[in-house]
Amino acid sequence: MTTIKTYDITTAEGARFSPHAWRTTMALAHKGLDHECEKIGFTDIPGICDGARKIVPTVEIDEAVLSDSWAIALHLEESFSEGPSLFGGEKGKAHALFINNWASFSLNPQVIRVILLDIYNQLQDKDRDYFRASREKRFGMGLEDFVAGAAEPAKAQLKGVLLPMVKTLETQQWLGGRVPSYADYIAFGTFQWVRTVSTFDLASYGGEPVQAWLDATLDLFDGLGRKERAAS
């Protein structure tokens, strides 16, 4: 029997918020694979898997240890082919790769400009000093200064960034077409990230098509996403 364990960072209230880890959580549910989730903080990451991995999601599948949500999805598709396909074939995999890159390099960079301080405020106490120091080093300024200068310009860009998603969902229920695919779980990871750390209404920048899609995705797998604590 296959044993699967995931590691996921959480807020002070215990909500899992990593966008990339949510991609993996949804992929496991899609495949019908039960797993144990160990909730950790940023400062716990160096100690997982004997220090072999530095990011989440990290997944232990029997003797294998995998990181990077895209690599995990490919492994799940190949190793558990008896379950529903995440991609629906090679064309679906290519489509999901585009969505993966769109989310990682177009959508998420705008979102982080809006919610960076919200993430900090939701963190476990043990993670706050690390998060502030590492992000202030990355952005070259204080968190408050970064958000003060970046949030409004980012919001102005979001409708344009989400437009391809909006236009797709105006003609089909899912990014994957008639049924949800890994492409949907990639995008959902970002929306769930926002939902668990901030009251910022990202879906409103995509209007009714995106809101309807988000509601439907939150309800998948017996409401797996909706059961996770939302920020307030």
Task: Please provide a written account of the structure.
The structure is a single chain. By secondary structure, the chain is an alpha+beta fold. It folds into 2 domains: 4-79, Glutaredoxin (3-Layer(aba) Sandwich), CATH 3.40.30.10; 90-223, Glutathione S-transferase Yfyf (Class Pi), Chain A, domain 2. 56% of the residues lie in helices and 8% in strands. It has helices at 19-30, 69-79, 90-122, 125-139, 143-169, 182-197, 207-218, 220-223; strands spanning 4-9, 36-40, 58-61, 64-67. The chain has a 4-stranded mixed sheet, with helices on one face. β1 (4-9), α1 (19-30) and β2 form a beta-alpha-beta unit. It is globular and about 50 Å long. The N and C termini lie far apart (40 Å).
Please report the number of helical segments.
Answer: 8
Number of domains: 2
CATH topology of the largest domain: Glutathione S-transferase Yfyf (Class Pi), Chain A, domain 2
Strand content: 5-15%
Q: Care to count the β-strands? A: 4
The CATH class name of the largest domain reads Mainly Alpha
Query: Residue-averaged pLDDT, rounded?
Result: 97
Shape annotation: globular
H/E topology pattern: EHEEEHHHHHHH
Short account of what is shown:
With 232 residues, the chain is of the alpha+beta class.
Please name the defining characteristics of this protein:
232 residues; alpha+beta; Glutaredoxin; Glutathione S-transferase Yfyf (Class Pi), Chain A, domain 2; 4-stranded mixed beta sheet; 8 helices; 56% helix; 8% strand
